[in-house]
Design brief:
The protein is of the alpha/beta class. The protein has a domain of 103 residues: NADP-dependent oxidoreductase domain (TIM Barrel), CATH 3.20.20. It contains 9 helices and 6 strands, in the order αβαβαβαβαβααβαα. 31% of the residues are buried.
């Protein structure tokens, strides 16, 4: 990423870069700072726009110290924003009760088949932006009859565009992944239509707690 940015004509300020603190590096205050510095050196940058704790490590007695280090990185400008990933409501409450700095983001898997309604409501109440990874179910549900029917109703829209639009209308930041230029362009073409309330309710009803991140 750092090499691509340096070799392009794009200004640093025009790119939003996120990286994460890996699970095994959640040892404590110093290890968190060191790992961020290591990431910045590898990227060749002086700051990242968003630094996330990758996953809540259950039973980690150092979690408070890790978050305290994250706050230091924020205040020192090493990260423009700090947040978490894959955190449940209980995980978030643990941070909120020990710090006056609220995570800016909670990045989780989110789509109609994993509609985490309670988590979304908690994040909204506490001004935590929910960010959806794997919003396209890693392709596993693109041919679901309901998704196909909704896509057909909106003319030339694809199932992927319907899934992205559904997330956007729930107030999420959406990060679909693709290595194909045409699909990247397709994924961006979701601002010229709106899913009507009746179809939103239909899509909301598809939840089956499907976590594709654990599927091979």
């Amino acid at each position: 990423m750092g090499t691509a940015l340096r070799e392009s004509e794009i200004r640093r300020e025009e790119v939003f870069i996120t990286t994460k603190l890996w699970n095994s590096n959640q040892v404590g205050y110093d290890s968190t700072l060191q790992e961020c510095e290591r990431s910045l050196r590898r990227l060749g940058l002086t700051y990242v726009d968003l630094y996330l704790i990758h996953w809540p490590v259950q039973g980690n007695s150092n979690s408070i110290e890790v978050w305290r280090a994250m706050v230091w990185l924020l205040r020192e400008g090493k990260a423009r924003a700090i947040g978490v990933s894959n955190y449940t409501i209980d995980d978030l409450k643990e941070i909120l009760q020990d710090s006056d700095i609220v995570p800016a983001v909670n990045q989780v898997e989110f789509h109609p088949f994993l509609y985490q309604k309670e988590l979304l409501g908690f994040c909204e109440k506490n001004t935590i932006q929910l960010e959806a990874y794997s919003p396209l179910t890693r392709g596993k549900k693109l041919n679901h009859p309901t998704i196909l029917a909704v896509a057909k109703k909106y003319g030339n829209k694809t199932p992927a565009q319907v899934l992205i639009r559904w997330s956007l209308q729930h107030g999420l930041v959406v990060i679909p992944k693709s290595i194909h230029e045409e699909r990247i362009q397709e994924n961006s073409q979701v601002f010229d239509f709106q899913i009507m309330p009746e179809e939103m309710k239909l899509l909301d009803s598809l939840n089956e707690n499907l976590q594709t991140v654990f599927l091979s």
